[in-house]
Each structure stands twice: as C-alpha cells, then as structure tokens.
Amino acid sequence: MYVVRRNGVYQFxxxxxxxxxxxxxxxxxxxxxxxxxxxxxxxxxLEMLVHVDDIFAMLRSERPVDESRxxxxxxxxxxAKMVRGTPWRVDRDLRAL
Length: 97
Fold this sequence. Notes:
The chain is of the alpha+beta class. The protein has four helices and three strands, in the order ββαβααα. β1 and β2 (9-15) form a beta hairpin. α2 packs antiparallel against α3. It is elongated, with a radius of gyration of 13 Å.
C-alpha cells in the first residue's frame, strides 16, 4: 500500500515511473491524507491510487508536451481535493511552466 505515517499524519506516496519522471520533475507523488486514523487513511489512499494510476495511463498513451505538465498538476490537485487531502506539493519548476 502507498500509505506512510509522518509526524502522526498519514500520507499517500507513489513512485513516478521512470519514463514519466522528466514530466513530473520528481520521483514520487506525495499527498497528505489529513488524518491520523489508519482506516481513513487507507480508504483515501485507495481513492488517490485510482486517480494517480489513471493519470499515469493517460500520459503513457499520448506523447506529453509542455501543456500536459500543467494538466498533470491540475489533475493531481483535483484528485487530492476529492479525497479530502491537501493539494499535492508541486515543485516550483513544474508549477512555473
């Protein structure tokens, strides 16, 4: 499972596939699940996993261009809000695009 506990709060963490790392600019996706309860964290992480895997599949199916970077950031932030987590921490370099 992609759940880790940091300072008592659970986070979702999933490695970014090597082929997509240049697009993301980092090696993993991290989202605070904003809970200290393991059962809630696991449910939210499963929801987040579905969204992140869908994004990865979409990016693999098409050749991403610079505009896709903005779309990726937007989709990840939206997914994080849907599972009641905090917005995904986006590298400043990626957000500046």
